[in-house]
């Protein structure tokens, strides 16, 4: 099955509008990009889009919530599930920046870690 | 109480910390950083998203992580950062008046002062949007503080006015926390935000972006109940008959940032009507000798990496001033030419033997264009770039030998 998708490149302010042709889910053609980075991005975005997720979780004994991030980007489709898992996290102070908050979030093999310390 | 310090830095955000670190590395020890919040780190503390530090550290950090690197470095060096301390005024002869719960009212005579107070969001009052004064209207940064630092949500159904990066980031943030973001409304025919944020904060969550539109009415007695949105013509005036209505309880404003220069005014520092920041030379010294400015209080940056880079320079220059060996001599003025707004610095010393970086904003989108620096009719620097946009600060560097050869005022232009 042939499918065409129009996406915006995010690598630079040019924001090239690229037309990506997919056949059975595989990228066969990219047009509209100005440079190679656009081509690479189009392949990634149309086959396996990933995103960093950042959020905050409450910490017992702290007025300020803890900011967290996925250690590396996770599949875009997993973002809602990731947020659900984070909604159930309960931590107690102290927390160290870099500490694992959720291991292997949503079975992605990627940890969610603290991005600040709370004393 | 009255005391003396060789160097006083006003503001403990990324600019103030970088300036302090640079001055310390140059041997200045008798210094203090004054910060009005309870923690150092400035606005980065609430910017929990990632994307900071790519230029400076070669990796993408979140705001708190970026800030922590400078906080840790300052701590390691032993730089005193005094939090919960508000500076009330600054005089032309560099007396800093400040107040804190711990020490009460104080005056510090400073050998040099670095202004690093950052910027503020343009508020609702500056827009003149008709309607009631109900609850539920916040600047995007205030909402960001509520959600990320205080841990509560300002509303459930949201419209965002303005498509600056903070507004886009908050569209995603509010959505991920369970709110419904109905629309992002932008007056101009283009967004001032990064493409990356338009894709990853709006398109990822199917939030429509209405370009050439604005909010023409807000309704609600106690709490916001809805906003009317209309299309605007090329004159940016609403077009009758194009109104659509969004029922919502929250309106976030992301309509521009303004350098916070109240203290600069008390010291009679000359301000630029274009940048709203101080007029500075290439050492980042203002019109008042011994007072320097860097970061968003000088001109609003897009990237904290450039704030840090600029602030290191301010710190080195302030240290040289304290030592009495900041070079001064012949200067030329830097003027905005065609397509260019708000070039910083506004004057250059020509006899320093140092390279100089000029920063500015293009006034529109220019594709396959070049930035040129002209000294009279002579082109002294040129750099091609695939695209210039108003949302992204542009730079052009002048080599030391080029600077030394400047014999009259220079003009920066894009086209």
Provide keyphrases for this structure:
heterodimer, A: 119 residues, alpha+beta, CPE0013-like fold, four-stranded antiparallel beta sheet, three-stranded antiparallel beta sheet, 2 helices, 11 strands, 18% helix, 36% strand, B: 415 residues, alpha/beta, FAD/NAD(P)-binding domain, Immunoglobulin-like, 3 domains, seven-stranded mixed beta sheet, five-stranded parallel beta sheet, 27 strands, 34% strand
Report on the structure:
The complex is a heterodimer of chains A (119) and B (415). In chain A, a hairpin with an 8-residue loop joins strand 1 and strand 2 (17-23). Helix content of chain A is 18%, strand content 36%. Chain A is elongated and about 55 Å long. Chain A has 2 helices and 11 strands; from the N terminus they run E-E-E-H-E-E-E-E-E-H-E-E-E. With 119 residues, chain A is an alpha+beta fold. Chain A folds into 2 domains: 2-48, no CATH class; 54-114, CPE0013-like fold, CATH 3.10.530.10. Chain B has 415 residues and is α/β, with parallel strands linked by helices. Chain B has 3 domains: 1-121 and 257-326, FAD/NAD(P)-binding domain (3-Layer(bba) Sandwich); 123-255, 3-Layer(bba) Sandwich (FAD/NAD(P)-binding domain), CATH 3.50.50.60; 329-415, Immunoglobulin-like. In chain B, 22% of the residues lie in helices and 34% in strands. Chain B has 9 helices and 27 strands. In chain B, a hairpin with a 3-residue loop joins strand 7 and strand 8. Chain B starts with a strand and ends with a strand. The interface between A and B is medium-sized, with 28 and 30 residues.
Number of domains of chain A: 2
Tell me how many strands of chain B there are. 27
SSE succession of chain A: EEEHEEEEEHEEE
Pair with the biggest interface: A-B, 28 and 30 residues
| Annotated CATH topology of the largest domain in chain B | FAD/NAD(P)-binding domain
How many domain regions of chain B? 3
Roughly what fraction of the amino acids of chain A lie in strands?
A: 35-45%
Mean pLDDT of chain A: 94
Question: What is the approximate shape of chain A?
Answer: elongated
Return the structural class of chain A.
alpha+beta
CATH class of the largest domain in chain A: Alpha Beta
